[in-house]
Amino acid sequence: MATNPDRGGHAGREFFATRTVAEALAGFQPQRRTPVQTIPLREALQRIPAVPVAASHALPGFARSTVDGYAVRAADTYGVSEVLPGYLEVTGAVRMGAAPDTAVGADTAVGPGSAVSIPTGGVLPAGADAVIMVEYTQEAMPGTIEVVRPVAPGDGVVRADEDAIPGAELVPAGRPLRAQDLGMLAAAGVTGVAVHARPLVTIFSTGDEVVPPGTAQLRPGQVRDATAVALAALISEAGGEPAQGGIIPDDAAALGAALDAALGVSDVIVISAGSSVGARDETAAAVGRLGPPGIWCHGLAIRPGKPTLLAECAGVPIIGLPGNPRSALVVFRLIGMPLVRRVGGCARPPAEPVVRARLERDLASASGRLDVVQVRLRDGLAAPVFGLSALLSVLTAADGYVIIPQDATGLDAGTEVDVTLYR
After folding, report:
1. Fold exhibited by the domain 64-158
2. Are 13 and 4 in contact (CB under 8 A)?
3. Does the structure show a pLDDT above 60 at 262?
4. Contact at 8 Å (CB) between 205 and 228?
5. How far apart are the first and last CA of the chain?
6. 316-327 burial, b if ≥16 CB within 10 A, otherwise e?
7. pLDDT per residue over 118-173, tens digit each?
8. Distance between CA 42 and CA 352 in Å, rounded?
9. Which of 104, 156, 182, 402 is most buried, most CB within 10 Å of its CB?
10. Which pLDDT tens digit goes with each residue over 47-89?
11. What are phi and psi of 203, to 5 degrees?
12. Is the pLDDT of residue 377 over 90?
């Protein structure tokens, strides 16, 4: 049987139906979403709100001072200076956590020519429209202060609704909650948040040569399963809940049974190794038998990581990764992590940390594929870290990576590039 020249590979076997990374990110969009659960605010860091949370009342809820000083009518300070100071009668003081207390009585307005002592965070008395810092005043005589700098209305004051008006969106749906978001919700009196459940991502490793990491003595040809451990860490970083499905031998029936069982309990399935075209690689065939809509693509225009499979079966997205650890982790970072986030309801993923640097040396590439190059950063230079795709040491030695666009044929030394940093 003749080999399909467009596919390449072994006669009688379909090889890669390659897609670009951009096509995969835009086109492979399973509709699965995890269910919604309500959790305490103290447990909500990095969780994904299922609905926006709005303010039930104005925040902070009262006009307050941003400085230690005196609440005044701004007009009473106009024209004052160190040469020509003004004088105001101190009629009372504001206590923290209480309504203003003046010499005449609670909530008495600040009148013309008067001032009320106020600490940072204190309630602005009625009649006052500004707070002058204590540094710009001094006691002229008991009960009277000398003012040497003017203030404008609103100086030294936070409005009652300056943080949020009633009904304002405090946090949006689909964006991971940060520490500052939790603080804002706490200020608004929110104690629980409706969030998407963490996606349960089942990881399978395949191959007769793969053994558990705890194996003390390796027989010739055996390798410890490093990829599954690293994938679990990336899944957690993406907001998922990793579940180790175990190591499946090179047996089509065993792989099919394991995948079929995982479909009923998983939100995403990840298969490490077995996605390339070779005599032992059964992933594509096993996934193809799981049900529609089936395989979306088998092959990505990326180096490292071309033999990648993307599929959806029975509503569950499936990623088949290359067997080489470095290839698997590079692809999962670019394709798998966005997928896990999407299934978990994350519509606004956090921005990756990126720095600008200049390439230390030329980088070759081939047009039509996206190249991911590991780099070290030193004094503003990005030095490529080279090595075979089977070597994890290339990743551990790198501070981040540079992407050579698929339409480029390389990058010259000295080119300014974006380096995406590893967290």
Report:
1. Molybdopterin biosynthesis moeA protein; domain 3 (2.170.190)
2. no
3. yes
4. yes
5. 49
6. bbbbbbbbbbbb
7. 999 999 999 999 999 999 999 999 999 999 999 999 999 999 999 999 999 999 99
8. 25
9. 156
10. 999 999 999 999 999 999 999 999 999 999 999 999 999 999 9
11. -110, 125
12. yes
On the 0-12 / 13-18 / 19+ scale of CB atoms within 10 A, 65 is buried
pTM above 0.85, yes or no: yes
Q: List the domain boundaries for the chain.
A: 21-35+197-343, 36-60+162-196, 64-158, 354-421
Q: Give the model confidence (pLDDT) of 333-355 as tens digits.
A: 999 999 999 999 999 999 999 99
What the block records as the tokens of 316 is: 């569950």
Query: Which residue, chain included where needed, has tokens 């003017």?
Result: 150
Is the pLDDT at 9 greater than 50, yes or no?
no
Task: State residue 314 phi and psi, 5-degree precision.
Answer: 55, 35
* Cβ contacts of 218-222, under 8 Å, gap ≥ 24: none
d(CA 81, CA 148): 4
Instruction: Assign domain 36-60+162-196 one CATH number from 3.40.630.30, 3.40.50.2300, 3.90.105.10, 3.40.190.10.
Output: 3.90.105.10
DSSP assignment of 184-225, as one string? HHHHTT--EEEEEPPPEEEEEEE-TTEE-TT-SSPPTT-EE-
21, containing H or E segment:
helix 21-27
* 354-421: CATH number: 2.40.340.10
**At 10, is the pLDDT very low, low, confident or very high (cuts 50, 70, 90)?**
very low
Token pair belonging to 72: 């005044």
Six-digit token pair at 115?
């001032």
| Burial class of residue 15, CB neighbours in 10 A (0-12, 13-18, 19+) | middle
Indicate left, alpha or beta for 61 from its phi (over 0: left) and psi (-120 to 50: alpha): left
* Confidence at residue 406, expressed as pLDDT on a 0 to 100 scale: 92
Predicted pLDDT of residue 108: 62
How many Cα neighbours within 13 Å face the side chain of 384?
21
Residue 328, CA distances (Å) to 209, 270, 272, 309 in order: 17, 10, 7, 11
CB 121 within 8 A of CB 131: no
Share of the chain above pLDDT 70, in %: 92
pLDDT of 390 = 80
